[in-house]
Every structure is written in structure tokens, then in C-alpha cells.
Amino acid sequence: MLKKIKGGVTAPLGFAAMGLRVGIKEGNPKKKDMAMIYSATPCVAAGTFTTNQVKAAPVKWDRDIIYCSPFVHAVVCNSGVANACTGEQGMKYCEEMAQATADALDIKKDEVLVASTGVIGAQLPMDKIVNGIGLLAPTLDETEEGGHMAAQAIMTTDTMPKEIAFEFEIGGKKCKIGAMCKGSGMIHPNMCTMLGFITTDVRISKDLLYHALSEDIKDTFNMVSVDGDTSTNDTVLLLSNGLANNRTIMVMDEDYYKFVEALHEVNVYLSKKIAGDGEGATALFEVKVINGESKEQAVTLAKSIVTSSLTKAAIYGHDANWGRILCAMGYSNAKFNPDIVDIYFESKAGKIKIVENGMATDYSEEVATKILSENEVTAIADVKMGEYEATAWGCDLTHEYVSINADYRS
Asked: What does the UniProt entry say about where the protein is found (predicted)?
């Protein structure tokens, strides 16, 4: 049985974390800007990375470490500067970050993963970074507070830290999985759309860890969009130290699928938190396409609806402008029959059918507006062609989104 528990990346056995301010970010002196996660026990690790052809230096570094190193011990992350479009110097700075972390923790540099987020094109202030690593290492904390401070330190335009943890059982052993992520802008479904760090004490092979993560990304982080922009730094890292001492998961058996279930719940939770915290957003916008002819069709339709600027603007205005939804479905390139589609809106205020067989029902605009005025709104499109479905997450499009991004660097 899966049980939600308090905490984030430090919830599983053996993981410590910390977040501090070291002066990378300008302005607010209270904003933390460096984080570290550490397991004294070696971890097998998996990662998924941006599909943007312009890849930040940390993405290249982590990809090599994940693929070539059998174990890792630590992740170090800065916020404020992305270390993207920084050439050979950016790669050297990744190595310096890893080496400084390795020296501070008495491990090898190829056992350190690095991450950066923030402004593209600027070089890292390495004096502050190295100083920060020296401050983080001796303050690493295995308590809930250590994980929470790390979650705060990776934020950029996020309005809140995003973290979650679950407890479950595998082979009679108590296991835990915890996570934190950041993401608010430059969020688009073309990998995993943010920085995410997931820890677990489950004992599992590296190959199956990677398979579980890469498969689940398709139905979670790949289904999130805020603004249609795919970042240069998108990274999700999953570390497993095996301290739960369950029988090592080596095949796709019952134990494997219990782990997959827990990982999926973590990723869904974080996906919704990212979407609901989109820059300037006032509402989480969830789109469900049901009874699709194929999984691919359902995914394509759901993504097209959730990324439609006109639909997002209508959600902001609490306007049941269902024509924009059908329009977005129509230009998605997925084949369907618009004359048999039903569309519903749903929130905690109720559920209403606004389209039946491609035409408006005799619905109440007042009731529809009430449903759309909640801070979590769902649109359901029933295409009546089969048994497949897909869910995508986004947010409304507001004036504040433009304000935030018009002066992001200033």
C-alpha cells in the first residue's frame, strides 16, 4: 500500500541534503541559491534530459556520468545562472563543481552530478560556487528540514518549493521514495520540462531504474506545458542507494511494478505542481482525452488542447469557450471525427457537459463559469473511438506571465 509521508529527498534512508544562499542570485538576500544531495552509500542512478538541441553544460556532464559511472554519491545544484551556451568554459566549470564537491565529501568527481538553472548565456561565478560547496558539505542534514531547504534553493520563478515522499513495501521491507523539483517557466512537453531530483532506498538494478524512469516520463513530465518553451537545462535524476535492503529488483516482477507505481505517483504529483505554479498562473488546467483510438492519438489531442494559447486565455477568463478546444484538437494532426466528440468541464464546483456530438448543449453559462472559477479545472474530451486515454497538465495564460518574462534578467 502506497502511503504519502512528510518530506522530500531526505525521506528515504541514507540521504542528506541542504540548501543555502551563497550570493549567486541578485536582489532578495533571503533567497537560497545552492543545494546539495548526498548518500554515503553509493547509488545507482538514472537520468532523462532535454531534447532541445541547445543543451546546457550540466546536461552534457550528467549524461556522461549517468551512462559511464556505475555509481554516484552526490548532486550539487545552483540556481540563478543556467550555465547554458557557455562553451568549453562551461564544461570546465561543471568539472570544477564536481571536483570541489568530491573533495568536500571525500568521493570521486565522476560520482558527482551537477545541475544549474537560471539565466542562459552567463558564466557561473565559480568563486561563489566553490565557496557554497564548502558551506553545504558540512551542513548536510538527513532530516525533513534539510530536504526542504534544498527544495527552496533550486527555485527560480517558482512561487513555492515542490517536494513529495511516499512509503511502501517491497518483499516485506519498508521502502521510501522522495523528490523535489523546480519548474515554472520554459515548460513544454518535450522531455521532462524542469529540474527534478528523486531519491529512493529501494534496491534495484541500474537498467531497470532507467527503464522505470524513462517509461514513466512519457505519461507525466512529458505531458506538462506552461508556455511552449523547452528549456536547455531540463533534467530529471533518480538515485537509488538500496538501503531498504529488499531483494534486488532484477526483473519486471511484482516488486518492480510496486516501485513503478510509487515512482508514477511522485511524478504525477510534481507534474501537477509545476503546471499549477506556471509563471503568472491562477489555475491548474488539466486535460483528459478519453476513449481514444490509440494512445498516440489521445496524447496528441491532449497536448494540443493544453498548449493552446486561446484555450489557456479562456480558462483565465473563466469562459467556457469550447470552440477553442475543438479547434485545438482539429489542428493537432490527430485523426478523429469532430461530429461525435463530447466535451465536459469539471472542478470541485461540479461537472458540466458543454458539447455533445460536436455541438453545444443547452448548458448554463453561469454554472460553467462557476466551475471554471476554481483554481484546478479539468477539460474532458470524449472522442468515442476506442479505449485509450491520456492526461496533460498546464495552466491558464495571464497578464502576469508577460510581466514576469519581460524583465526576467533585470
From this structure: Cytoplasm
